[in-house]
Amino acid sequence: MELVQHIGVPASKIICANPCKQVAQIKYAAKHGVRLLSFDNEVELAKVVKSHPSAKMVLCIATQDSHSLNHLSLRFGASLKSCRHLLENAKKSHVEVVGVSFHIGSGCPDPQAYAQSIADARLVFQMGEELGHTMNILDLGGGFPGLEGAKVRFEEMASVINSALDLYFPEGCGVDVLAELGRYYVTSAFTVAVSIVAKREVLDQASREEQTGTAPKSIVYHLDEGVYGVFNSVLFDNTCPTPALQKKPSADQPLYSSSLWGPAVEGCDCVAEGLWLPQLQVGDWLVFDNMGAYTVDTKSLLGGTQARRVTYAMSRLACSWKY
């Protein structure tokens, strides 16, 4: 909230969409005029009633996200069965509920999950209006793909979402529709370059050496970044980053079974395995495309070695564009 307000965004345009907030965060919102806050349970509602009674609440509902990479509904979101009770409690506590939010989670391959959640939101709107709440905000959440090669293209999702909005929240109904498009906008905007800081060759089975006269080897490379830093998507989104090399290997250059590891001294900091790479050296750089979402803005939790430096680049073609 502090950062957003620092760049000039008015408090009326800010929504604190996390339904699990510290009391200090709620008090900060109250002090700085941020009134839109999300909730999904009675405990969160009680915290807001006590610390920010003038807040305008957005009820976060659970979704069908079984096909998403991140199953956010395991931790966040009220079931449809509990929504009326929560809306009634808000009314009794004199807290205004002004809308509904949901989050499908990243990597969802089924656009119909958005359509179903929009239909569910319409039901919750009806409940709220029956109880006297003025409902005028629908937050579609985030997780929208930012890659051309995604299982479902953004345009396909947008088509399904727009059809559902036309059906349940048609233009002119007085509802403001929000969406969190961070991943869509920034995924392809950043390329990450990491350095090899150490390497180790591991000989395979000794019996094969006896049979062939050579000992097949795999190579373990240690990088200056790992899954507790810019490669956190390996943990949270089950991604398998594939690097580009500084120099393209020649056709006769041997390839070795290789794995990439981060700087943390523990067994989970594995960035990628099963890669076939030429012999690389300490100090070489590996480049990873499409690394704009949840990467450079995250702090290393373990084993971070240095501050990250961001370099801005623009192609000659882009420089020639006229605005």
Entry summary:
The protein is of the alpha/beta class.
Topology:
Elements: H1 2-6, E1 15-16, H2 23-31, E2 36-39, H3 42-51, E3 56-60, H4 80-92, E4 96-101, H5 112-130, E5 137-139, H6 154-168, E6 176-178, H7 182-186, E7 192-203, H8 206-212, E8 217-223, H9 233-236, E9 244-245, E10 256-261, E11 270-277, E12 285-288, H10 316-319
Helix pairs in contact: 4-5, 5-6
Description:
The chain is α/β, with parallel strands linked by helices and 323 residues long. It has 2 domains: 2-185, Alanine racemase (TIM Barrel, Alpha-Beta Barrel), CATH 3.20.20.10; 190-288, Lyase, Ornithine Decarboxylase, Chain A, domain 1, CATH 2.40.37. Helices cover 28% and strands 19% of the residues. It has 10 helices and 12 strands. It has helices spanning 2-6, 23-31, 42-51, 80-92, 112-130, 154-168, 182-186, 206-212, 233-236, 316-319; strands at residues 15-16, 36-39, 56-60, 96-101, 137-139, 176-178, 192-203, 217-223, 244-245, 256-261, 270-277, 285-288. The strands form 2 sheets. A 6-stranded parallel β-sheet has the order 1-2-3-4-5-6, covered by helices on one side. It has a 6-stranded mixed β-sheet with strand order 9-12-7-8-10-11, with no helix packed on it. α5 runs parallel beside α6 (154-168). The longest helix is centred in the middle third of the chain and has 19 residues, at 112-130. Residues 1-186 form the Orn/DAP/Arg decarboxylase 2 N-terminal domain. InterPro entries: Ala_racemase/Decarboxylase_C, De-COase2_CS, De-COase2_N, Orn/DAP/Arg_de-COase, Orn_de-COase, PLP-binding_barrel. One of its GO terms (molecular function) is ornithine decarboxylase activator activity.
